[in-house]
Fold these 3 entries.
Entry 1:
Amino acid sequence: MALEDIIKKIEVEAEEKVKEIEAETKKAISHIEEKGVRELDRKKKEILAEAEKQKKSIIEKARFDFKGETKDKITERKLKVIDDVYLKVFGELSNLKKEDYLKLLDKFWSKISDKSGLEIFIADKRENETSEFFQGKGVQIAGTVNSQGGFIAKTSKLEVDNTFESIINNFKKEVDMEVVKILFNS
């Protein structure tokens, strides 16, 4: 396979991954209130633009170093770009303005249908804002959890983990399965 063919394949795979990340990111943020969505969409475009720059940088470096690169190293680089996107999205969630954060909590809260008997464990990094959200909701705050944002709602039979870490982790697992299919079935 010629060097240019390999580089072209890398470019195509990277484009597919960027498109996949963009589609999954849109799906994940669709649950946020309209104002928060607009803000996250703007930030998402910045993140994707940065990912695109990183992709071009990786491809450019591959042109010069390719003979010594193995497929494992190329795959590792691609996965690093994807991981960087997750870190940036997590950072943006962690730094939401109070108003947007409270709207996001309300969205999470509204998805819990049976609220009877819930114990709430709130994020320790945003304890004041999260406590404020739950005032007047008729639930017991049972404690805090090590988290940048969100809450965990528990009963004896059910646990709903709406911490930022859990949400990003669950989303990442879904996307990673799709990425693996793309990487290894091509």
Entry 2:
Amino acid sequence: MGCFISRKKEKVAIVFKKFGFDADEETFIAAFKRLYPNDWMKINERWQLEEDNTPPGKKHPMQHPDVYMKEMYRNHKPKDDAKETELCMRKPMELKDLKVKAIILPHGEYRLGVLVPVIDEGSFYRIDGTHIIDKHKIKKIGEADGRVEIEMTDKTVVLEAV
């Protein structure tokens, strides 16, 4: 069964950041349900759908929603420190707040005539209608002196932004 909660890692990271990286299982689950009621509803609906479509006496692959939440906690709880969790949070969150005036790619520089917003399209960001940054390829984001450096698996992109 595929992932049916969009941006799950980001949401889990947000829960840990707001409620503490050492939050216990019960606190984490209650916080996730409170912060993301639509996702909690999706988990329950998906489980019920599996239950309804499975013949009597047979099992389906989806865990009960309570077990699913416990597994999500165990699988995503930060180990020794919060660096990985904070990095996971930063990747998809900060770019959409930028107004870009230039895009510097390995093969060239694009100066934009006006400030252009970064549009969050779900699995990628779009700048100026044509430039795309795939969220899944982002490894690290750094900021300094009005420039945002996005280290990706295949290239580094620099945005001059305000």
Entry 3:
Amino acid sequence: MNTEYLDPIDLSAEAALELAELQEGIREDVPSLTHLVKLIIAIPKQSEHFKGRYGRSMLNNVCAYPIFRDSLKHEQREEWDDLEGFRSYLKRYLENLQTSVSEDNKEGINEAKRFCLELGKNLVSEKMAKIYEHHGHANWQDMRHESGPRLQTEN
């Protein structure tokens, strides 16, 4: 599976589904979790569309940090001295999730599934907020709905 063009929302949902199937004994592996971790941690290879430039990993994108932080359990949230500390923690956390899943650790599988679902939820929330920020306000004033108040006009 080529992770370069995968959407992290779709990938997180697919990983959560595969983890649930792993718990039920329907499957023996969780390739989407591996691809999701790779998408978060790895820097994409050079793209033909951006010659001379390399993509950025989600882990190196400071704008994604609140999404990652909010996807952790409250007790997992620590105070980090700097962004590098958070980056190192998150990388270890994701690698530990993968190890737990590969060792069929029940708690690890539950935590991986919880993280994938939270990450997907937070990514969707962020995407919707941007949609409403850029498009919602302009269109909101023009919208008319049959359940809204009617203005009385004088004829």
